[in-house]
Structures are given as C-alpha cells and as structure tokens.
Amino acid sequence: MVFHALLTLAPGVGVALAVLIARRREPKASQKKAAARIAAIDSGHTRRIVSFVRATYGDYPRKFFGYFVELAPSGLILRPGLLLRFRYPTVTVTEPILSAHVRPFADEAEHRHLSSGRYDAGGAMEMLGRVVVTCQTPLGVLEFAPTRRNVPVLLHYLQLQAPSGGNRALAFE
C-alpha cells in the first residue's frame, strides 16, 4: 500500500521502475544485438559505438573523452559529438593495433568515473557500465571504454583489423 502511494505521488517513478525491470532482462537481448553487429562487421558494414577514448601519444586526449567510434572496414574513425565537432576534429586511427585486452580499472577514481553504483558489475544497469579495453600500438597505448554490451563487438573488430602474422588469438582476449 505504501509502495503504491509512492508511485502515485512521484511522477516518473513507475517508468523508472519499468526501465530497471527491463534492464534485468537485457543481457540476452544485448547478446543477440552484439551477434548481429559482429555479423554486420564480418560482412563489411560500418558500425558505430559510443566510447570514451584516451591515448599516451599523438593528438589523442590524455584523459577519457567521449567519441562516436566508427568500426569501418577502412579503419577506426573517432568522431566527437555533434555539439563538439567545431572544437575537436575527427580522428582516423592510422597506426596498426598489435594487441587488445580488457583490463581492470587502474584506480578508484577511474572506476568511479566509468562504472560505479548501479552501473558496476552485478548492478541493476550493469550492461550500461563501462569496461576499459587497452590496445597496444607501435606508438604507444590507446584505450577505449565502451559499454559492456559493446566490448565483444570492439574486440572482434580489432582482431579482424590486426596485422597479419603472429598468433592473433593470443593477442586479443
């Protein structure tokens, strides 16, 4: 009875609860979407994901900055959001990515910034939390922080784009 009274007094709470309940059922749906995205990438289509990006070299930001990451057959393209395009240029990743793997958060501040609370693993909205993917290039380290649902898609794309030679299966985890 008290719960019903709270729902009627606070507009929007019912919608928020419905979203949380739907998010609990989302892992299976996001696995199907990831499989569809991987199949599209395999067939040569471009897919776009949202991710934070930073690097230790070049014109890339040193702190995590949000980009639309286009997974194109020609290579990675980093596009800033619509309102920031006048200030930050579109960047094409031209250097080869030698290896990529998911790493734990470096410190508590990075964890708090990217994935904490209900977005943390085991939380109500964990599929929207972020995971850090570290990529080694000849020039330095390039890091992406996509949502958990996009990690398999990004790793699959990076494995396809890896230079030939060597054991690609061991380099991409």
CATH class: Mainly Beta
Biggest sheet: strand arrangement: 4-3-2-1-7-6-5
Mean pLDDT: 78
Q: What is the name of the CATH architecture?
A: Roll
Cα radius of gyration in angstroms:
18 Å
H/E series, N to C?
A: HHHEEEEEHEEHH
Strand content: 15-25%
The helix/strand class is alpha+beta
Largest sheet geometry: 7 strands, antiparallel
| Low-confidence regions | 1-9, 165-172
Number of domains: 1
Span between termini: 50 Å
Annotation, overall tally of beta strands: 7
Quick one: CATH superfamily? Pleckstrin-homology domain (PH domain)/Phosphotyrosine-binding domain (PTB)
Principal-axis shape: globular
CATH topology: PH-domain like
Number of DSSP helical runs:
6
Helix content: 25-40%
Explained architecture:
With 173 residues, the chain is α+β, with helices and mostly antiparallel strands. The chain has a single domain (28-171), classed as Roll (PH-domain like), CATH 2.30.29. It contains six helices and seven strands. Strands 4-3-2-1-7-6-5 form a seven-stranded antiparallel beta sheet. The protein is globular and about 35 Å long. The termini are far apart.
Question: What's this entry about, in short?
Answer:
By secondary structure, the protein is an alpha+beta fold.
Question: How does the SSE layout of this entry go?
Answer:
Elements: H1 2-9, H2 13-24, H3 26-42, E1 47-55, E2 65-72, E3 75-79, E4 91-92, E5 99-103, H4 108-114, E6 132-136, E7 141-146, H5 151-161, H6 168-171
Antiparallel strand pairs: 1-2, 1-7, 2-3, 3-4, 5-6, 6-7
Helix pairs in contact: 3-5
